[in-house]
């Protein structure tokens, strides 16, 4: 490398989903969103809701603001907090680094004060009780009391691979106690169009199951045409 990179790079303009697009995902289960994207879109299951449904709000929807920190770093997250808009979901990429917190209670409190809708990281956090007091929903890989550094280099407003999924700033994040789903910006309207069909299918099947339905017609068909066989 000829020159050292700057400590922090911040993207000046990010294209965000509209308020109408964001509202279409409010209260929608992540499973429905995945079903509208051919069963895909969720981050690795190691990234869980902090508290697993206890103590903190369990649903967050908003534009991703990606802070690409690197291992044991928080400088990019600091930059993201500085430029975040109300309703953003700050995504801290620490490249899966373990045994170091990506944020603590005071930082989560500042994000809450800024109007951030949620915090997602492929690393750990610390100060559980304080984060609960702050009231910011968090998705992470666990807890560690170790502190990060703020030396950089870091990037804000670009993209990163988090939990095995490429997240670009401006993509839509939908998160609940089941996990975190990324809707790429270019697919938001197409996914919204499919959500109503998914909701209708789910509602119809739920009603049937509550009424005692347990048939697997697809298996009967496979047995009938030879795609499945029975044996001793």
UniProtKB/TrEMBL annotation:
Substrate binds at residue 126. Mg(2+) binds at residue 127. Keywords: Magnesium, Metal-binding. It comes from Marimonas arenosa. PANTHER family: 4-HYDROXY-4-METHYL-2-OXOGLUTARATE ALDOLASE 3-RELATED. InterPro entries: RraA/RraA-like, RraA/RraA-like_sf. This is Putative 4-hydroxy-4-methyl-2-oxoglutarate aldolase. Its cofactor is Mg(2+); a divalent metal cation.
């Amino acid at each position: 490398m000829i020159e050292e990179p700057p400590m922090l790079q911040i993207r000046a303009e990010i294209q965000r989903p509209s308020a109408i697009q964001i509202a279409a995902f409010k209260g929608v289960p992540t499973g429905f969103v995945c079903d509208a994207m051919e069963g895909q879109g969720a981050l690795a299951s190691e990234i869980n809701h902090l508290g697993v449904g206890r103590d903190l709000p369990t649903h967050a929807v908003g534009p991703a603001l990606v802070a690409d920190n690197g291992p044991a770093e928080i400088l990019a997250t600091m930059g993201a907090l500085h430029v975040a808009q109300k309703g953003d979901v700050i995504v801290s990429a620490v490249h899966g680094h373990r045994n170091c917190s990506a944020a603590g209670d005071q930082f989560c409190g500042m994000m809450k004060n800024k109007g951030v809708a949620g915090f997602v990281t492929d690393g750990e956090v610390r100060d559980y009780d304080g984060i609960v007091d702050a009231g910011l929903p968090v998705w992470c890989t666990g807890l560690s009391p170790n502190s990060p550094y703020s030396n950089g280099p870091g990037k804000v407003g670009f993209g990163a691979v988090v939990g095995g999924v490429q997240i670009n700033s401006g993509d839509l994040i939908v998160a609940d106690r089941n996990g975190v789903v990324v809707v790429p910006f270019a697919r938001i309207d197409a996914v919204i169009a499919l959500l109503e069909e998914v909701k209708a299918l789910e509602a119809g099947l739920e009603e049937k199951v509550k009424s005692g339905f347990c048939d697997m017609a697809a298996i009967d068909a496979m047995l009938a045409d030879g795609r499945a066989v029975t044996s001793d």
